[in-house]
Amino acid sequence: MNAKDRSLSHFRSVILAPLLVLPFCSTARADDVDAYIKAEMAEQHIPGVSLCVIRNGLVVKDQTYGLANVELNVPATNDTEFAIASMTKSITASALMLLVQDGKIKLDDPISKYFAGLPESWQPITVRHLLGHTSGIKDHFHDYPFFPIANLDRKLEYSDDEYMKAIIDSGLNFKPGSQWAYSSTGFTILGLIIKKVTGQPYPKFLHERIFAPLGMTRTHVISLADIIPNRAAGYGWQDGALRNGGYTGQTFSEGADVGVLTTAGDLAKWHIALSSEGLWKQASLEEMWKPAMLSNGQQAAAFPAQTAGLGWALGPYNGYQRISHGGSFITGFSSFMGRIDAKRLTVIVLTNQHEANPLRVAFGVIGFYDAELLAPNRMKPQADTRPELTAKVRAFITALFSGELTADHAADVNAFLTPGLRNHLPVIPRVPPVAKSPVSELTFIASEDISKRGTVQLGAKLARMSHYKRTLVVTLST
């Protein structure tokens, strides 16, 4: 899959994520969950999966499936460490909050406090901007190409000074605080700030302040040179075949944006710690898990499906607030973790297949543990009593994916959008212009009253949730 294909795949997965979840059983049976996981692995061509489910603060499922290394036929075990890619950002955010608690960093500190000689355009950038992806700093990967990329080669290695110079010389995509755009670069810079403030490299700080205290003995920051026992090999599914993952140099492998290797069981220890007054104060969690704000007073919306927290993604799932983050890395890994705190349920899925959809796996699993989290695409189809609404949804989604959706788009689309969503439409990233208008079918699945669940999205209380299945075909020009 080339960069353009990958960008569109990522765009679709974020927009349609709430649709891609599966079945429910009132009492989760191990063999039902295992059968579901194995079926997903076969369908998605995933060699290995590390799964953990946390309920009421306790691990109720910790299981690993498949192979850690296909070429050597090495089974994956609960000791197998998977690269979690961008899920690392949430760990980095939690690390920053420890330093905030220590009084060593303030979220609204300008980053010029830690880096001398920044250009004038960078002076307004704060730590909070980096955490909330609102800094305007160019991304150093090409996984999210709605804005120009920074002038760096992910296969090469850079010193800290060389890295910062290249990023600064690349300029900003927009005025800090004015928009939202995913930036792995911002989290790499946060890792450099941790190093400057503590005098410790990012990996050592994580080990001493988080991994060791929580007993996360199967967790490391990636080193291409070191021998790390039980490290999984990474793969991708391309041209109808499983292939080895791509190469990324040490600078971009170990960064505070993507650098953690771990197991689902070890991540469960971290999640449980986040749910108790221990390493993190409640105020720290509230900072991470509330919407980041733009300078115009609007919430920072990643896409219509979710808003951005500080190092986390926030959004509704079946009428409940979801706190989550995913990751995908060209070296051959993808991951997803989702918390439904109102249900005291967390699910973590790690895979060693770059093109996999671990979100679908994760919410398929969570549906086995609670009836209200039943997956939409396994719900019993209902009669569509509001076909006029389905038509408006179809028009909205088609315009969004074609890049033609604006704040003053057709009145029949705007009429059913909340003011909060309409305010964000002008700055929602567009599908790359090489994409032709997608061909799609939209099918109504079911609808339910969720008014009593109290979920608010972009300033509007959600009263009813309707589920649709959309088949999308995108043709790319050569």
Q: Report strand order across the widest sheet.
A: 3-2-1-14-13-12-11-10-9
What fraction of residues sit in β-strands?
A: 15-25%
Q: What structural category characterises the helix and strand content?
A: alpha+beta
> Which of globular, elongated, flat, extended, rod-shaped describes the shape?
globular
**Average pLDDT score:** 86
Q: What features would you describe in this structure?
A:
- With 478 residues, the protein is α+β, with helices and mostly antiparallel strands.
- A hairpin with a 2-residue loop joins strand 1 (48-55) and strand 2 (58-69).
- Residues 1-26 and 432-436 have low confidence and may be disordered.
- 30% of the residues lie in helices and 21% in strands.
- It is globular and about 60 Å long.
- It has a nine-stranded antiparallel sheet with strand order 3-2-1-14-13-12-11-10-9, sandwiched between helices.
Index terms:
nine-stranded antiparallel β-sheet; three-stranded antiparallel β-sheet; globular
Layout of secondary structure:
Layout lengths: L2 H14 L13 H15 L3 E8 L2 E12 L4 E2 L6 E2 L4 H14 L25 H6 L27 H11 L13 H15 L3 H10 L8 E2 L13 E4 L2 E4 L5 H4 L6 E3 L1 H11 L7 H7 L12 E3 L2 E3 L4 E5 L2 E10 L3 E8 L4 E7 L6 H9 L20 H16 L8 H4 L4 H6 L14 E11 L6 E2 L2 E2 L2 E10 L5
Antiparallel strand pairs: 1-2, 1-14, 2-3, 4-8, 5-8, 6-7, 9-10, 10-11, 11-12, 12-13, 13-14, 15-18, 16-17
Helix pairs in contact: 3-6
Short description:
With 478 residues, the protein is an alpha+beta fold. The chain is 30% helix and 21% strand.
